[in-house]
Design goal:
This protein is an alpha/beta fold. It has 4 helices and 3 strands; from the N terminus they run H-H-E-H-E-H-E. It folds into 2 domains: 43 residues; 59 residues, no CATH class. Helix 3 links the parallel strand 1 and strand 2.
């Protein structure tokens, strides 16, 4: 995994904001964007795109949600968070093995922030 500079992150955020708002990006403006060796920033967004995200990592995401998504041919992103209740009720949340299995099955795993 490569490191992203603040400049690259801000450029990506600006591009996504333009796409979300339906603002066309001028072709000449693309030359001024940072390098994108993976082709992530310059890929067109498909029509009728649906993004499925799941927050807070309850155990049911691994036992119910992920199998249903796979059966229907969908992907998804699961955002994991370290709640205070995780220390006392680990049975409520996905285990590391379940998270790894989701990643191995092609799902994305992300970090869900925790506001203190």
């Amino acid at each position: 995994m490569s490191r992203c500079s603040t400049k690259n992150i801000l450029a990506a955020a600006a591009i996504m904001a333009c796409i979300s708002a339906g603002i066309a990006l001028p072709a000449k403006g693309l030359a001024n964007l940072p390098d994108d060796p993976a082709g992530i920033l310059r890929k067109p967004v498909p029509d009728k795109l649906v993004v499925l995200t799941f927050d807070d990592s309850p155990a049911s995401h691994a036992t119910i949600v992920a199998p249903l998504l796979k059966a229907m041919g969908f992907g998804g992103t699961f955002y994991v968070c370290d709640f205070d209740s995780f220390k006392t009720r680990k049975d409520w949340y996905m285990t590391f093995r379940q998270m790894k299995a989701l990643a191995d099955a092609g799902f994305e795993i992300g970090n869900h922030t925790k506001v203190v």
